[in-house]
């Protein structure tokens, strides 16, 4: 039997998700008081357009070592941006050297055992057909044991769409198409019959996908701040990756995040679902407050002079970064949705307050990733556990080789 559908006959996929299975990797991670993730620097320069020396490197081996260390520390997930830009990238530092997020996270499945691996994918760009991604996603779900997922993005820069021969699609229309894409994915993952579909942008005839995912479907994440994006996340996503609406400093974030996170969760509840919020702080921590701010000053002093990430030289209709762009804050140049600067105790205090503001997890960035991640594990993570933000895992193992490799850098 073949089931025939058009956009008008599609219904919201009632496909069970990973949180409906208590033994899924996502359900296991959500038993932690706070999710902990790492934002991989697979783009040259990571998040920061500064020439201050550092180890941060976009190459696979460097990022592989980061993920192995993050898994050792008990991190729950990793993901990275997906970049489609003309020659030269954003700036001289953020110069266009960037691995593909999908291929990178797929490769990481072979060298990890527990950590969840999320691929950022622009689902509306030329290469992707829902049938491709349904098959690739189900395959990676099995290779990883249910640890793989998709950070669904729609592309906010005109130049990105134009690289694939498209004209940029209007903002809210992009989310309508993304919903259609996810509906079709859900049908392909769920149905035990062939599936035919005739839509405006995608068509398929007697399509079928095996194997079926282990836990209903792969993990779904949505990176957004707009109303249309939040509506999409409320209907389909397990995690919504948010920014601070008010600015990159901690005070502005704490003023504006409670209403923003509450809105995202209320929209999900209206759909009969629960959703978790994830924020991307860039952490600069040192033993003393003076040392931390002095290091931040050196980063800013050697900054390339461009605006914070998300406000570069290419036309964009993104809404999530508006609060950052509206403020004149030199420290916003260090990168991240927000910046946290101070001693380990101060950093943990900020994280506690962000959790109280409705943030369910942190996707961390650093300026100098390898040594700063090692410092995080040694000095900050124990304080997070004392503060009730994290709990020890039974399979945690001690391994100081990562720290020793980079401590001289």
From TrEMBL:
Region (Disordered): 389-409
GO terms, molecular function: monooxygenase activity; oxidoreductase activity, acting on paired donors, with incorporation or reduction of molecular oxygen
Domain of life: Bacteria
Keyword list, A-Z: Flavoprotein, FMN, Monooxygenase, Oxidoreductase
Keyword RNA-binding set for record: no
InterPro entries in alphabetical order: Luciferase-like_dom, Luciferase-like_sf, SsuD_RutA_monooxygenase
Coiled coil: none
Signal peptide range in chain numbering: none
Domain Luciferase-like: 36-360
Protein name as catalogued: FMNH2-dependent dimethyl sulfone monooxygenase
